[in-house]
Amino acid sequence: MSSPVAQAPNAAGQPEKAASDADRVYIFDTTLRDGEQCPGATMTFEEKLEVADFLDDMGVDIIEAGFPIASDGDFQAVSEIAGRVKKAVVCGLSRAGEKDIDRAGEAVKGARRPRIHTFISTSPVHRKYKLQKSADEVLELVHFQVTRARNWVADVEWSAEDATRTEIDYLCRCVETAIRAGAGTINLPDTVGYATPEEYFEMFRTVRERVPGADKVIFSVHCHNDLGMAVANSLAGVRAGARQVECTINGIGERAGNAALEEVVMAIKTRHDVLPYQVGVEARMLNRASKLVAAATSFPVQYNKAIVGRNAFAHESGIHQDGMLKHTQTYEIMTPESVGVSKTSLVMGKHSGRNAFRTKLKELGYELGENAFEDAFNRFKALADRKKHVYDEDLEALVDEEIATQQDRMKVVALTVIAGTMGPQSATLTLDIDGAHQTVQSTGNGPVDATFNAIVKLVPHQAKLALYQVHAVTEGTDAQAEVSVRLEDEVEGKSVTARAADPDTMVASAKAYVGALNKLFAKRGRLHAQQSA
Ligand code: KIV
Ligand code: ZN
To answer: How high is the pLDDT of residue 19?
Structure first.
């Protein structure tokens, strides 16, 4: 096997010496593109900027900011991110068409380190049914797309979509064509999550061995999780010489998702004995990244999710607790602190002041502006008055919500619900809509129905309620309820999800519903503004 190349192309397209050369693995985050592509995980413009800033601070090497031809909203997000990211390469995705590539080029051109990621399907099934093109026609397009992208930027990544189901000889010809046309990174995705680690390893080994010029480019892995093997496959690709891993925070993505960034990073850091590679990501920010993305997408993180799930460091059984008390290494292969989980979970109460609150927020990874801090502090005080113990999770829910609602046009001001055995249940709701208070009363089949009917009365809309989910943020009857609401706008083909937390389940429900409407209108507003422009 030829030796791995670990040099990232710089803005001039020339490989830049990496910190520790051959062992450096570049982390390519596609949360804002492949992640956002999964149904219900859409983010607003502001949320995308916030996630991009965080990823840059965390040390991600390449941020795939979106698919600029997909919508004007995507284009704007990619170009805004390109203009503000300080360290990472900013990448825009494109298919093989002229317009696609030019749109991606336009979107990333303001970046300090711009990249175009251009892809085409190479497998027989995709060539025949999706592209309806012969193998030779696809090969010509490979040459065309890379050449055209190189006219825009020096740093071009080429992907063979469905590489793992492509005939190996043909895949090698495509890769050779892309390298000759000037691609600096070659990505071989397991698009449908079909490969096993051994097969994925073998594909990279063969391509790197056979293709002339393979030693001059960086190979990249991109794995989907349909069979639960995305991270294992990604690491197998790295062992075979790939030096870029495409992944997403919390593993969000099409269908079963993509390889989870936090799992890839922590596998490399924790098992350095068998995975002797270097990554530039600051692992102590992983927990915060997970929370940020979960809040922005309103996609809850599974409790037992590796690294960032709420149970990832919880030891429940007596035997485990006993072992942990004797020596933490009995059941802990990495410390909670190493991924940014603080050990203490109960610290704040109604007597805590501004200073303690600010320090606690810092510990949890939040830095708020003065106004947002004051609002969050007031809400914390109100919560502490109603709830005996305020846990870290309560504060996180509270601040995430504060951040999410800063740009909103509509806010819940007051809600009174009459519930019980004597229906119909009723709700009196006051919303602040564009700065004016409006109140209505409504009835319904249960308190949630009455509350949601009141919202519809105040804000008539066509969107359908596709998901309503409640769970407790912490334990106890005074726990905050965290409610997720997903709305589907069939006319515009959009779906949005929002979350909100409050000790009162009805208030949390109203806030989550109104949050989803805010997201929907923000999306529509941008879409319509762009259409009329
Ligand atoms: O899964 C895939 O093949 C992709 C490509 C666009 C890289 O996401
Ligand atoms: Zn993908």
So the answer is: 43
| Torsion sign (Cα): 298, 303, 307, 308 | positive
Say how far apart CA 332 and CA 89 lie, in whole Å: 35
Instruction: Give the tokens for residue 44.
Output: 């607003």
Ligand 1 mutation pick, 33, 34, 62, 116, max ligand atoms within 8 A of CB = 34
Ligand nearest to the CA of 192: 1
What region, left, alpha or beta, does residue 446 occupy, with left being phi > 0 and alpha being psi -120 to 50 degrees? left
Q: State yes or no: pLDDT of 13 exceeds 70.
A: no
Predicted TM-score (pTM) of the model is 0.77
- Tell me how far the alpha carbon of residue 270 lies from the centroid of ligand 2, in angstroms: 26
Q: Give the burial string for 124-134 (b: 16+ CB within 10 Å, else e).
A: eebbeeebebe
Mean pLDDT of 429-454: 94
- The string of pLDDT tens digits covering residues 325-363 is 677 777 778 999 999 987 655 567 888 888 888 888 887
Place of tokens 């190349």: 5
Closest ligand 1 atom to Cα of 258: 1
Q: For ligand 1, atom 5, name the residue with the nearest CA.
A: 161
